[in-house]
Amino acid sequence: MKSLKIKLLLATIVMGPCAAVAQNTYSGYFLDNYDYRYQMNPSVGNEKNFVSFPALGNLNVRLGGTLHVNSVLYNIDGRTCLFSNPAISASEAMSKFKDNNRLDGNVKVPVMSAGFKAWGGYNTVSINANVDFGAAVPKSLFSLVKEGVSNRTYDIKDVRAHAMGYGEIAFGHSRDIKQVPGLRVGATLKFLIGVANADIQLDKANLVLGEDKWTAVTNANIYGNLGGLQYEHDFDKDSGREYVSGVNLDGDGSIGPNGFGIGFDLGAQYEWNNFTFSAAVLDLGFISWSRTMKASTDGDRTFDTDAYIFNVDDDAPNSFESEWKRMRDGLSDLYQLSDKGDVGSRTTGLAATLNFGVDYKLPYYDKLHFGLLNSTRINGPYTWTQVRLSANVAPVKVFSADVNVAAGTFGWSFGWMLNVHTTGFNFFAGMDHTLGKLAKQGVPLSSNAQFAMGINFPF
To answer: What is the pTM of this model?
Structure first.
């Protein structure tokens, strides 16, 4: 049985300190002869035509978030332990969590890409597979796990998680505007094929902890779009009602297209003296899903549970560590959602990204230029922003490189990129986020790590 439990999904949200991200390396936004600048600003045109190596033209892998590994896992006497271990004080453990702990990601797999000069400008064709996902976990949830009955009440609200997978076929065109010297504009039209979508909205969990039971007031909704998806059920003897306990993918139907949509990228750049100003908005669009399986508490729901009773004695059967494991396996029971079945079509928007940049080329050495880029991804509770300053150099025709530093929602990061581009062959590699510390200043970087590489054939 291909069964995916909601409790395992919730455990992943709580325990997953990082998210896999891959889209485009922002280290390459200003880099000379980086073939995929058009995916960050569709007004950019390459000097040469190109075709990508299948699936390896622009491969990116990144881990990121504001919830770090060392916030959840500790080393005690050579043993890896959770933050809930009694040997770790509550003050130390809770100081590492933010009020809102974020995970966010986008995975873009480039099936095939190509670019060519024609029709008075530069044109691109891309086929990509995309996965967008994110999570937001409040500090109060970690406080519940760590402090247990030492606090009598908890207000856990706005736990969020989402994931969306879709394919896209994109056509782009950019050109100079002759009537305005220095101005270039571009646009990309995307046809979207939705494969899967899930939205988890755990709006409320007001808990009053007693010695033998908890009283919970909860409010939650879950939406799922995937062929064959069905909810599994369990029965609560105390309330005499059936509730959703997991997800089963063995129902009628198969994994395939479940929705269709459309999207747009728009961009412009303007050259003035030694400056180039640029702006772009990406992923303006939506997907309309044809089948939506919903689970809900139908507003506020009140019930009692004795599922989790903590004991400060580390050797007790219901010690903190043992109860954490039980709680991780039973978080779905806390909300007791009702299966609402197929509620019909549902439309979801794409996560739009705004890029604003300025590039300055040195007048006495035009092979060196400096760029400042602000990027903001607008996605409700998963919104993030960053500012990146880069130095870019192209000392010879076949090689370009840059180094950069960024600050934003996910902390500080250091990036770099190397690009070899000869006639007939192009290889690039780089990182937006390099693990480590700014050695002299001792400033810790975020727990982000990103690597990008690609093989393409310019002609």
So the answer is: 0.83
